[in-house]
Amino acid sequence: MGFLIHTLVTAFAFWCTTQLISGISFSGPLNMIIAAVVFGIVNALIRPIALVLSLPLTILTLGLFILVVNAAMLWLTAKLMPGMQIASFGAAFLGAIIIAIVSWIVGRLVAGQQLA
């Protein structure tokens, strides 16, 4: 059940991102859900390796380089998904920030409702 909720929250964050950033688009709602699954897999398998490899830069920038890693994971997801388009790395960077914020907010709301 948690996987389904997390996937739907990520898909909703993708939708919010497409509404705010013109450089990110999806071919349809089903593609958005599939992209959320692929994004979860990319974050589970590749992101930890990228974080370890970029640890010196992350320390040097006091953690801000993690934003670049998050944008790279979003960019990679777009490369793996035929119906997902990202116009530039800048759009991926802003999109990664919006996805993180929306996912965090909705995740907190969903977690708060489950406890009540």
Q: Residue-averaged pLDDT, rounded?
A: 92
SSE string, helices as H and strands as E: HEHHHHEH
Structural class: mainly alpha
Relative helix content: over 70%
Count every helix, treating DSSP H or I runs of 4 or more residues as helices: 6
Total strands: the figure is 2
Distance between the termini: 17 Å
Low-confidence stretches: none
Overall radius of gyration: 14 Å
Largest sheet: 2 strands, antiparallel
What is the global morphology? globular
In the sheet with the most strands, the strands line up as 1-2
As a percent range, the share of strand residues is 5-15%
Keywords: Membrane, Transmembrane, Transmembrane helix
Pfam families: Phage_holin_4_2
InterPro entries: Phage_holin_4_2
Organism: Plastoroseomonas hellenica
How would you describe what is shown here?
- InterPro entries: Phage_holin_4_2.
- This protein has 116 residues and is mainly alpha-helical.
- The chain is 79% helix and 5% strand.
- It is built from six helices and two strands; from the N terminus they run αβααααβα.
- Strands 1-2 form a two-stranded antiparallel ribbon.
- It is globular.
- The mean pLDDT is 92.
Main features:
mainly alpha, 79% helix, 116 residues, single chain, two-stranded antiparallel sheet
Brief write-up:
With 116 residues, the chain is mainly alpha-helical. It contains six helices and two strands; from the N terminus they run H-E-H-H-H-H-E-H. A two-stranded antiparallel ribbon has the order 1-2.
Per-chain topology:
Blueprint: H1 2-20, E1 24-26, H2 29-45, H3 47-53, H4 55-60, H5 65-80, E2 84-86, H6 89-115
Antiparallel strand pairs: 1-2
Helix pairs in contact: 1-2, 1-6, 2-5, 5-6
